[in-house]
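Predict structure. Chain length: 446.
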Amino acid sequence: MMQQLFDKRSTLLLLIFCLPLLFLPKINLITVGEQTAGLRIDDFILLLFAIVCFWANFACQKCLSDIEIALLSLVGFSLLSCTLNHLFYAADMLPVKASFLYCFRILEYFLFFYIGVFVFRFCRIETIVAGFFLWNLLLMILQKFQIVGIFSVEGYIANPDDRMLGIASFGSEIGLLLNFIFCFLMYQNATNYESKGIYLPNELKRFISIIYPYFLLLLFVFLVVLSGARMAIFALFASFIFYLKDVVSWKRPSTYILPLGALIGGMLLMVYTLYNASGIVSRSKGLLSFANFDLISVVWDNITLEYDPIGRESVRMGSYDASWWMRIHKWAYALKLYCLHPECWLQGIGPGFAMAALDGGFLRILTELGIIGCVLYGRLFYLIARQTTQLYWMMVAFMLNMVFFDVYLAYKPMSLLFLIAGYAYATNAKPSKNEPLKKLCIEATF
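Prediction complete.
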């Protein structure tokens, strides 16, 4: 017979302390070296939460779920990779040193999985996500009018530029958060009002269900463009186009007139916002220049592996696009270091060697944790995506952003993702009415 690890009162007390962390901006209490992620109040609260959860698991001898096993396997392998890195570094086989702190970052974010399970006992996840979205929307509006500043990796900035970040620290982070919320809202049942205690006439429900996804598209196009996150804009339209395959029938023109109109309207709104309310156009003038591709071979041939390239780039920026110029230096440094050390191809160079931001999640996993690390992360992502349709499409947006963004190391997006995954896991583990209590599977999720 399965059993829950905490009673309802204890669970509520833990939620009161932990759930607000999702809504608070990141503020470093102690800066760790040159890292952007120092020690925060979140770290201390989550550490206490982890100790309580570990003690409860040990006391009740709880079985681990498949997601927990995948996560712990990943953390264990990261520790092995980091240990091997230190041995190779001591033997002068590697010029860089990994960080043990990076082994535990994914474990810290995963604690929100359990918070999501706790949420299942008290309220709907739709309420939490809606509140999170409205809170960020309010902050973005206040930031637009410079009433409230932004909480960047350098600290609080009272007078930000045109980018609106909500509780995030940089544009790519709020862009991905908006992608997540868009996919979550897009694939929830927009007409299921009876279960929420809201009763509407059938015609009104039908009208809302028709315009709901297109209204979301226009709203989120506007917000994502204002965030300045270019990859998030692409991921937003890609997610919407994939959604249309379920609602469009090419044999019936009436089914694609409205989606086509929404896409055109979204494009026009995007163009208008790009040129009038964001700084994307000004910083993207050389984005598609072929000179950026010529830069790859030049940097690869000239870059040195004795030190990281940030601030000491081997090729001057000149007329190159700034983002490509910086990324190519980072990517060439990490990939060349990995390729020249075949003894690290399986386990990687080591977690954290690739600077605070490599700006390429897939490349970072490969170079830091090697082929085995890619398999372990792929397993974890698969287990998350298969739980619900919403999480599947959130993971699609996740993967698209991973091309130019170290998503799996971003605190707020990963916290939101694990929170929803934990709630979904608890929902799937809930027994049916005809299932006997002894088969209750909620044990693995508190």
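Summary: The mean pLDDT is 83.
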